[in-house]
Amino acid sequence: MSSDITVPRPRAHPSARPAVDWRLRFAALCLVWGFSFLLIKVGTGGFAPFQVTLGRLVFGTAVLAAAMVVRRERLPRGARTWAHLAVAGFLLNALPFSLFAYAELTIPSTLAGICNATSPLWGMVLSCVALSEDRPTRLRVAGLGIGFLGVLTVLGVWHGFDGLDATGTALALLASLSYPVGWIYVRRTLAGSGPSHLSLTGAQLLLATAQLAVVTPLFTTFPERFPAVPLLAVAALGALGTGLAVLIQYGLVAEVGPTTAQMVTYFIPVIATAAGVALLGESLTWSTPVGALIVLAGAGLTQARPGGGRGRAAGSRVRLRGSEPPGAERAHAGQRSEKARSGSA
């Protein structure tokens, strides 16, 4: 689901024209991250949550490793950098990926996708506390309040949360909280690092994979069989949603800028909901899509910045998230620079 590494914004080569139009790549990124929650649900139907996360990271790391070989990139050097990347890998990959996998044992993929959209709301609160230069405006505070009302709408608070699995929902919300915690950590420790974004992200995913490789055998037993559909779901989740998505996102940021690229955040819960209902037969009440729209409206307001010049100046630095959904792919709510969401989930 992810890395968030601050790197200099790449300079586009005037003669280098991508073979695929950026709009098609943008749509592909929305679909990949939107379907990540469905893939998690399918994967946990055949494997334990930790096994789904481990497989996701293995396939995602393999894609980035192949890209590094093709581009002749090397892994970063320095024990300090690797230590920070280990923490980033835990907060942005190992922890949220695992939490979402466990959450979807008891909640629908549609709800998980909507919970993921609360990351910008958490991010605004945390950034105001942890980043002294980032102060809330009335508009952003209003966005936070609106987003909170949207979450209550999704959860159906007027029904007393009847029929809602509290544990699974809490795990999904904690996963969404983990992303901005990781973003802030990365900003304070790895911003302006020398290695390329691909090198840093590849190392981060490698370390997250190592963490899951240690933890998974302690809490699960080796699968007796490998059912085809869940296995393909895990492979697609890793190769597409955690590997290829990072490469697509970085290309979009380089071509159209982080402001446009981060708009993918607002399509993810819509696609996750549509996929869950259409393909998995998950139930949908009116409060779910209405609440999701309110959450997205609030998240959009938390991204508001006064004036237009600041955003252009901030474009000299780019933030890249390599996952999920999940995640993020998904947009950072608490930093002055413009952001691009990579995954969510």
From TrEMBL:
Protein name: Membrane protein
Biased composition, class Basic and acidic residues, residue ranges: 327-345
InterPro entries in UniProt: AA-Vitamin_Transporters, EamA_dom, EmrE-like
Bilayer topology annotation: Multi-pass membrane protein
Coiled-coil region list: none
Residue stretches making up the EamA domain: 27-155, 168-301
Provenance organism: Streptomyces leeuwenhoekii
Keywords: Membrane, Transmembrane, Transmembrane helix
Pfam family, one: EamA
UniProt subcellular location: Membrane
Location of the region described as Disordered in the Swiss-Prot/TrEMBL record: 304-345
Transmembrane segments: 26-44, 50-70, 82-103, 109-129, 141-161, 167-186, 198-219, 231-252, 264-280
Family (UniProt): Belongs to the EamA transporter family.
Predominant location category: membrane
